[in-house]
Amino acid sequence: MTDLSFRVTLGWHGQPADGEGVCIIGTKRLSYSAPAEMGGLGQGANPETLLLSAVGSCYSITLSRILKTADLPFSRVHVRVEGSVTGFPREMRFTTILVHPEIRDADGIRAEEYTRAAQRARDRCFIGSVVRDSLDYRVGEVRLTGP
Questions:
Q1: Where in the sequence is the domain holding 138, given as residue range(s)?
Q2: Same-domain status, 75 and 114
């Protein structure tokens, strides 16, 4: 079995409330700051949306693999991810992450199979497995759009 490693470089400038950072992933630069709702600049990404992005991107890849393996037709998978944080500002913690997949060019007659595939993707998503024991991580609405 092979061990894998991943690297991200980050830099922060300024104080928590008025600072901003840069995240470098490969050759891509992504700016980030604390969310405005938490007293930050609210510019670029923030750690909370980056966590949702990590879960959602892993979920979308996993769901597309499951759909392909199950021979369920699709052309695209779009995922809307919602997260809830409680206890601001002293004892903050994520309480919920909901993934809402939209499967394009799906066979509507097989809707139950798509719904089961969406749930299996939640169960098999590697990044989701990192968070699912510490919060309510589940599949919300599964939307199918036809050709």
A1: 47-145
A2: yes
Q: Say if residue 77 is in the same domain as residue 11.
A: no
pLDDT, tens digit, 9 for 90 and up, residues 3-23? 999 999 999 999 988 899 999
The CA distances from residue 62 to 41, 47, 109, in Å, are 34, 23, 22
Three-class secondary structure of residue 19 per DSSP? coil
Complete DSSP assignment for 60-128 = HHHHHHHHHHTT---SEEEEEEEEEEESTTTS-EEEEEEEEEEEET--GGGHHHHHHHHHHHHHH-HHH
CA angle 64, 69, 70 (to 5 degrees): 100
CATH code for the domain in which residue 130 is found: 3.30.300.20
117-to-69, 99, 103, 121, 127 alpha-carbon distances in Å: 10, 13, 11, 6, 17
What's the pTM value of the predicted model, to 2 decimals? Answer: 0.93
What CA–CA distance (Å, rounded) separates 147 from 144? 10
